[in-house]
Specification:
mainly alpha
């Protein structure tokens, strides 16, 4: 495991690893919530079971219009979400606890914070079922541009439309912290900053010190490894 990540980080660069971690961690989250290997049984009811939850999601018909999921897929997604989140929402602490189970060898709290922020689109401190399926709809069913826009939003921490070296350094440090012992023996103090420089060397096309959404998407589309990682989401559900 550690050799894989060492080789990937040294040869492919930060941007590929970051995209792959978005893919892998999102798949882990869906597995935790029981959303992978799902089959829509005939017994699935025609409406949400809402009697025991605090947050009531929008109607399935409306969510079907707003996402790329069918009504039956939304029913199954909701059952998995409600099973792990009976209140109907996930707060950041719950999110961090979930990710600590995925990466027990390291400290995933900061990376989980960044991912939580990406799902919490209305910035109210919780991820509702709607937030969750809107994000999944983009990650699983969106175009390449949709998916790369979502990834860019994850890295653009202050949401000002560009990625700075400071933001990518925060992301890189969170990845190193999360991987923990699996980064050994390449865990050097200056390694995160070196990978940030590599990221900007490849993606900051006009050398103005920031990476815009257009630069990010253009660079990612030219990277065969990133394009292959995007395909990992195809046909998950």
């Amino acid at each position: 495991m550690h050799l894989f990540f060492r080789d990937k980080w040294e040869v492919e660069g930060l941007q590929t690893v970051g995209i792959l971690l978005v893919v892998c961690s999102s798949l882990k989250l869906m597995h935790f919530l029981g959303l992978i290997d799902i089959s829509v049984a005939d017994s699935v009811e025609d409406d949400f079971e809402l009697s025991t939850v605090c947050h009531r999601p929008e109607s399935m018909d409306k969510l079907e219009e707003q996402t790329k999921f069918t009504k039956k897929e939304l029913q199954v997604l909701y059952r998995g979400f409600k099973n792990e989140c009976p209140s109907g929402v996930v707060n950041e602490e719950n999110f961090k606890n979930i990710y600590s189970q995925f990466f027990p060898q390291g400290d995933s709290s900061m990376y989980a914070h960044f991912l939580f922020e990406a799902f919490d689109t209305d910035k109210n401190g919780s991820v509702s079922f709607e937030d969750f399926v809107f994000g999944l709809s983009i990650i699983l069913r969106g175009t390449i541009n949709d998916r790369l826009n979502w990834a860019f939003n994850l890295y653009d921490l202050n949401k000002d439309g560009c990625i700075t070296k400071e933001e990518m350094l925060d992301i890189m440090k969170s990845i190193y912290d999360m991987m923990g012992k699996y980064t050994y023996p390449t865990m050097m103090d200056d390694a995160p900053r070196e990978h940030v420089e590599s990221f900007f060397q490849k993606m900051d096309q006009n050398r103005d010190g920031v990476v815009t959404i257009d630069e990010f998407i253009d660079s990612c589309k030219k990277d065969e490894n990133i394009m292959q990682s995007m395909q990992l989401f195809d046909n998950v559900i």
